[in-house]
Batch of 3 targets.
Target 1
Amino acid sequence: MTQDAPPRDLGDLAERFRGIVGAEHVITHEQQLATYESDGLLQYAVTPGAVVLPASAQEVAGVVRACHERATPWVARGAGSGLSGGALPVADGVLIALTRMRSIRHVDLDNGRVLVEPGVTNIAVSQAVGPTHFYPPDPSSQIVCTIGGNVAENSGGAHCFKYGFTTNYVTGLELVLADGSQLTLGGPELDHPGLDLIGAFVGSEGTLGIATGIWLRVVPKPESVRTLVAFFGSTVKAGEVVSEIVSGGIVPGAIEMMDNLSIRAAEGATGAGYPTDAGAALVVELDGSEAECAARFEQVVEICEGAGADSVRVAKDDAERELIWRARKAAFAAMGRIAPNYYVQDSVIPRTRLADVLGQIEELAAEHELQVANVFHAGDGNLHPLVCYDGSVPDQAERAEKLAGLIVKVCVDAGGSITGEHGVGVDKKRYMPSMFDEPDLSAFQRLRCAFDPEQRANPGKVMPAPRLCGEVPGPYRRHPLEQAGVAERF
Ligand SMILES: Cc1cc2nc3c(=O)[nH]c(=O)nc-3n(C[C@H](O)[C@H](O)[C@H](O)COP(=O)(O)OP(=O)(O)OC[C@H]3O[C@@H](n4cnc5c(N)ncnc54)[C@H](O)[C@@H]3O)c2cc1C
């Protein structure tokens, strides 16, 4: 899947960049560029023409303006931990890496707000507002991934079932648009009149501009947190328990599931004490007031035991809680113990379809003679099937990719979505038509063109096929709104 092509000679652009950010922050040497050729989805690799590392919004604006004047495409990059090829460079373009912009510019705990630069890591926000407050959206990659990347992907994490996703925490954005102009949307206030352009920008995957300043909401830490891990004979059984807990009116801070393959991999890597013969592990965490937590926690233990859990392990202290989570958070990285390579999917299904969909995934895996590990945010129905393969065996990578595509289809057919939190990027754009009709895609495109008419910001991502503003692939069909005379194309 490598899309390597010789990088374009950017002419005098590199020299202009040196004048803006300093010579040491412009990379053009072939070997150094290789560091940036992929994000976390290593199946794709493209060497950019140059990498520029600005240190301020002014520098970002200068770099983007220079690209605009030379009609050169560019891609923003945070930590490069994305799993959909969102930060994959374009061969004839510039990669704008934001990792030097790491200041936390303002902390206002009384009002629960922080203003951060885009290169600040997710975990650094919670560290900056602790011990009294925290920033709830917590991707497993939180030690490295940046808030700019989180905003672009609308990232989630284990605690999003109760607390919501990135989009629920961004109150303001300072942006650089594709022509190099600067724009501020919102601020520390919670709500603003007019169109929700912040909502449009969050999750736009670097296609609408670059976030250079981000106002975030942070919240007080709950008085009490209680965590358990329950082990079941099968994911079907554990899936039923998830439904029972949620339909019982309990809203856990987190409710995560791992199947046997991921338990074995994670236990091998962490020694957290998960039984390697368990069919499924369910990590449940409740938080809130002391009294509410205690009562609800008893209820969860009863539900797990009543449903025939093989064992229920309750964290006695912070150290044991951390150990329980370590296994869950290590699951992706531990897949190397199962196979040299894996292909991660990130689909969403209605929670009530968990057992059925997991069964279908198992059948497909057997049919394709590959192993699929499942580790996921069970409360949200956000599956992360990890299709394991050995890239050195002829044909296995292709089979893994095909199987991953079939899993997406199963999820969409079950009433779900092609992505929960990892974004569409380059990897999932081919699946967009399975969820969206042409008028929907056209509406996305028109919004994008309002921000970036020449489509220089992260071209070739998200939309299923490259297209110009207003262009519709295939025979033109009038949108129902056009037919009704309510709207027209431009
Ligand atoms: C082991 C592992 C576990 C993960 N777990 C989770 C998880 O639990 N939940 C989850 O949601 N994700 C998870 N991810 C995926 C990834 O970490 C997130 O998508 C994260 O938000 C990406 O941040 P980044 O800084 O690495 O962004 P990058 O990968 O560098 O970029 C991602 C996208 O954001 C755009 N972008 C970056 N910065 C900006 C900016 N300032 N302005 C505009 N656009 C920008 C890029 O162009 C690209 O489209 C995981 C990844 C790994 C490797």
Note: Confidence is low (pLDDT under 50) at residues 1-6, 472-482, 485-490.
Target 2
Amino acid sequence: MMPKILLVNPPVYDFAAYDFWLKPYGLLSVAGYLRGKAEFKLFGYLDRSHPFAAKQKQLESDHWGRGRFFCQQIPNPPCLEEIPRYFRRFGLPRNMFVDFLKEERPFDLVLIQTMMTYWYQGVKEVIQDIRNVCPGAKIILGGNYVTLCNSHAQQLGADLLVTGTNLEPLWQYLEMTPDSNQPALWEAYEQLNVGVLRLTDGCPFNCTYCCVPRIYGQFKTRPLQRSLAELKLLANRGVENIAFYDDALLFEAERVLIPFLEEVLKRNIKVGFHSPNGLNARFITKELAELMVQAGFKTFYLGFESASPLWQQRTGSKVFSDELSKAVRHLTAAGAEPASITAYQLLGHPDADIQQLEDSMRFANSLGIRGMLADFSPIPGTPDGEAARQWVDMDEPLLHNKTAFPITLLGFDQTNRLKDLQRKLNRSLPEPRTR
Ligand code: B12
Ligand code: SF4
């Protein structure tokens, strides 16, 4: 008999959350490796195609498949009481999961996705409900929170924690043999409008605020044929928008992204591509910009962080201001609408004094592109996360919260002033033709 496995993408407890092409890609990838070897059920709290969410007007998707989650306001956790923002639980209501478990039980195994370190309360809630309704099921956690806050995650009471990218302990625990050529288990969704792809793993840079190089080791490309098979699977399911979750999608593009996009054109696959995780402007050449636009890239998020040369050098020199200007020139010459290009800049970084954020925001605006303040979340084990210990208790993951940390560091008024300025600068630009 095949084991019966439940896949869960938990609800999110946070001040803010928005469906910016969010999918539990690690979880679906792991399940994909076991395709045909187990019976799967998925409960996605953040699935806006679920009938409960799909019928609510205010949760409707925008033109590119993004949208709001259903949410309920709840009291701030005690350690975030001082933060003057409403705390919420995002995702399908709790009783829906309990009813689902009662209807579908028993399960042999439950695999739970963990994502942001400061989202562990949702994971805890899911574990409690499973223990109550399906006491015989073995619970397995994997993903970022488990990897970055392992000893904290051990207190949640799961049976196995899979850390990092080594899945060997999982296969041993399950006594199953994976098929690593299989794409993610997208068919687990009954309705699917948005998909995710990842053509590479890791990143060759070493930014002081990021944990990717430490977790993924050397930059590696994924097999092109497997990515193309996954794209086909998504396109056949009717997916219209695909977000890349790569950390360095444009690095060594001639080995991965270029052949991938050429194949997209050759096969006449029509989907909109997006890069919410940020592209490195340094690698956007004239030719690459043309190919990206032709093959269907609709939005371009560029990781810029700051226009201050000192700050850029001190944090890893991943991109310089002239490289951003050049990338914008290439993209717009290739036909990208300037309003579809957005530069991310970090708000609340520990070196805020040398970051010259206002100047950086004005610089991006002078290029005719939008800016987005990416609230800084300190990550344990990174140089900047460790530096953050002087302001917050890094052993409490709730204090890594990206809304809370900038307010703790800069104060509420200064944080609001900078956010207002960003909104004002964006309003000075023409509206995107399609939002
Ligand atoms: C995609 C991504 C996003 C997406 C959304 C992701 C989502 N679904 O929520 C977007 C672009 C929206 C995003 C936003 C942000 N992100 Co982000 N993001 C990532 C990224 C690149 C991948 C995360 C992911 O989906 N991993 C799963 C898949 C893709 O990974 P995988 O390698 O295939 O998985 C393997 C293993 O990890 C394991 N595995 C993974 N999951 C599971 C599950 C199970 C059950 C098992 C057994 C195994 C397993 O098995 C797989 C084996 O191949 C990570 C960096 C990274 N490379 O991990 C940062 C990362 C998670 N983000 C980070 C940050 C800082 C942010 C932002 C705060 C940035 C900002 N300032 O705005 C925001 C916060 C958003 C919010 N609402 O709070 C940090 C973490 C911060 C933290 N404290 O936890 C990370 C680690 C990057 C970094 N800077 O170091 N992010
Ligand atoms: S370039 Fe991006 S993924 Fe790479 S180390 Fe820097 S922040 Fe992390």
Note: DSSP finds 18 helices and 16 strands in the chain.
Target 3
Amino acid sequence: MCFARFRTACLFAFFPVSASLLAQSEPPKKIEGFDLKSMDTTADPCVDFYQYACGGWIAKNPIPPDRAVWGRFNELGDHNLAVLQNILEKAASTAKPRDGSEQKIGDFYASCMDEAGIDKKGAAPMKAELDHIHDIASKTDLPWALMRLHRLDVNVFFRFNANPDAKDSTKTIAEVAQGGLGLPDRDYYLKDDAKSKEIREKYMAHVQRMLALLGYEGDKAAAGAQAVMKIETDLAKGSLDRTARRNPNNVYHKMSVAELASLCPFVPWQKYFDRIGVGGVESLNVAEPSFFRGLESVVVLSKLDDLKTYMRWHYVHAVAEFLPAAFAKENFDFYGTTLTGAKEMLPRWKRCVGATDRALGEDLGKKFVEETFGTEGKRRTLELVHEIEKAMDSDLKQVTWMTPETKKQAFVKLEAVANKIGYPDHWRDYSTLEIVRGDALGNLDRARQFEFRRELEKIGKPVDRTEWEMTPPTVNAYYDPQMNNINFPAGILQPPFYENNMDDAVNYGGIGAVIGHELTHGFDDEGRQFDGHGNLQDWWTPEDAKEFEKRAECFVKEYSSFEPVPGVHLNGQLTLGENSADNGGLRLAFMALMDTLKNKQTPKIDGFTPEQRFFLGWGQVWCQNTTEQMSRLSANVNPHSPGKFRVNGVVSNMPEFQKAYSCHLGQPMVANPACRVW
Ligand SMILES: [Zn+2]
């Protein structure tokens, strides 16, 4: 979900929280859509529209103890989990003959659910990997140990993957990128404020306890945790910050294998690629060359034993949820409670449904689609997408700050956007992936190796534009700048985003704005640097680029002034792409709605005009409660603003909103200046 390099242009970010205990089957609850009872009509819409649209919901929906955020889309997410649980419980039953997919998803899920079996085995399933780390005799063995761990999706030292070549989107190339940290961002290691120091201390204590669970005795666990902290801090110092990484030019450095070898010689790269199974790599993208220079020094200057401890820590961390309760609980205490403020683990079945979705997402997703999303859903959504694209076309025509040449290119790019709705045309083939009932960790390892191989097999081949980055039940959406396509999984095409029996105004404020949001990502500070074919190429005249940046800067200032927690400000630069997509998206949806309602009778419903209901529809999608810890984490790492500012930030920039609610200059929901790009 939104982890690939440029594919961060999604509707929101998820921070997986671990879980355990209780297995119970719940029938999927009906999801409430747009609801007047969610409002707080005592609030003044011109003073705090978010409170007006969501105050009732916020008061009635405290954060459940097993969550760090609770919002409308979490309600929908839980609904989808319950649908998936029913599918998986059926597939797990061996009472009837099962087909290949049912065997895989059913046995993966059942193995994950078997907590007693997992506890009984203790640390034994990790033995093979831990033995390999134990057997590293010198630093020349390190690259091969790394390779094993990378195959298992363990985040040690750097990331190795496949991506479209940013400057030739028809080809997939190999890429190495910075990685290797256990905290959510480099800043956690480098900032000096009291909160960051406190988190670092708690992190070290957590690493120490995990090492102790692995058998590090007495002082060795504490010394090991210090060594891990030292290595990761040094890696963090060489890492590019999150905001800088948003500029695609900062993370594109195509090099020969020999050039990479001169930056970071401890890995014999050519042999590494051959042995990992991608022979013939001559050039690749080294996303952050300075990181690899730093990595070389870290390896040279660290003691071999410390490097081995670092690798053990990352391995146990990567598989913690599939280990006995003591490991899973320790993992949750830090990553769930300390970092996000969740008080309890999610029930085990939710964690296992999520794990199956990550491991076998398209086998499971196929069944989800059969149960929930017909061809009618696809047809109606596509109609809406076309409406919004039409609005973008007329918006571009009206824009006064672009020169005709650049505008022409913008139309070409818009015309080339491909729409993907609901689910893939071709389902992924998992037939070579072996899932064994009762072997929870083995299944996880094999699923991760399968995915790693699948990724690497793309290298040197044409880019597959039909592929999906999200599974069908996912409540999210994304724009992919290298494919120039917008993607809406079946999971999000339901209330509160879209309701069959709701008036157009509310649906356009919900899913309509989501569609507009993804579409305008093609034209945000990041997306605008790619052309219609998905190539990183500057198609803007310098004059137009300057005009764009001037307008974008208005958003940076506006959102940087928002404080989710007293004293903690949003990072307007980090959230720029998402904020401009929200602003552009809602405006396009409004234009499309006006076009749809043209020449129609538009009576008030529940006392509200269509314009008022449109903005309420947008507001209610974002009703949420968030722990203070999660608000802080998000402000540091999340490119999306919190719900409150996604609503108030956008409406305060729209004269159409101010007209709908009769707000006047000087009131908080009338931004001065009002920011607008699209
Ligand atoms: Zn987005």
Note: The chain is about 50% helix and 5% strand.
